[in-house]
Design goal:
Blueprint lengths: L9 H6 L8 H29 L9 H9 L3 H29 L6 H35 L6 H36 L5 H16 L10 H22 L2 H9 L1
């Protein structure tokens, strides 16, 4: 039976020239950079979220807001604010090395464009939301001035939560759907990870929670898919041309 009657596994499909993804040692290097960038993004974003979570919640009493700023807790929040753009740089590194690892195919130009657009939108909304949430703590830390009105601070927190939990998480979900679709079509990830990626993406698309724990889905998925692509690239590189040819003709 020839390869024209059965779909090829992901590794053999790339060896047969089905996409413009890097091959051999180049593919392994690209996938390794993707995995490193994904892990760096995940670590920085989780650290930033833990530090920003020191800010009182939207429903906290006004006295809690006043105590937070008088106690100088804004130092930790300021560190978190500085980590967010570093996480953003790591995400850009991850996104473009991921696109390089996935390669280009004529049949998914729309999905590829959606992946890039939603990734950039997620990052912009994350930056804006983090800035809104932490702006008053940043002011207190850098100038020593106490913001004039605690309810105004609550309004800034509400704006930040809206940008992050209403908009950014949904862009993250759309990015995950597009990426999972591309990786699945190329056979780069196992089926369980495809299903998990779609489920996590749907959760982000419909989530109505402002609990920072919901955002952990994004970095966790980032690490999982980048490691899976790296593992697949290493398996593909280990196939010699003769082995790939015999598997194709089987």
């Amino acid at each position: 039976m020839t390869s024209s009657t059965l779909p090829l596994p992901g590794a053999l499909r790339r060896l047969s020239g089905a996409s413009d993804a890097p091959r051999g040692a180049d593919a392994v290097r690209t996938a390794r950079r993707c995995a490193i960038a994904g892990a760096t993004f995940a670590a920085l974003l989780c650290a930033a979220l833990l530090l920003l979570d020191h800010i009182p919640s939207l429903g906290a009493p006004t006295l809690d807001y006043l105590r937070f700023y008088l106690d100088g807790a804004g130092t930790l929040v300021t560190i978190g604010v500085y980590l967010v753009p570093l996480a953003g740089v790591a995400f850009l590194w991850f996104m473009f090395t991921l696109r390089e690892a996935l390669g280009r195919r004529d049949d998914d130009a729309t999905v590829s464009g959606l992946q890039c657009a939603t990734g950039v939108a997620f990052l912009c909304l994350l930056f804006a939301g983090a800035a809104a949430v932490a702006s008053d703590a940043f002011l207190r830390h850098r100038t020593g001035l106490l913001p004039l009105h605690m309810e105004a601070i609550r309004a800034h927190t509400s704006l930040g939560y809206t940008l992050v939990f209403l908009y950014a998480v949904r862009m993250a979900g759309a990015f995950m759907i597009a990426t999972t679709t591309m990786a699945t079509r190329r056979g780069l990830i196992p089926m369980w990870l495809s299903v998990a990626g779609y489920v996590a993406a749907v959760v982000l698309l419909i989530a109505a929670s402002n609990n920072p724990a919901i955002l952990i889905l994004m970095p966790a998925w980032t690490v999982a898919i980048s490691l899976a692509i790296w593992a697949d690239a290493r398996r593909t590189a280990s196939l010699t041309p003769s082995t790939a040819e015999s598997e194709t003709d089987r």
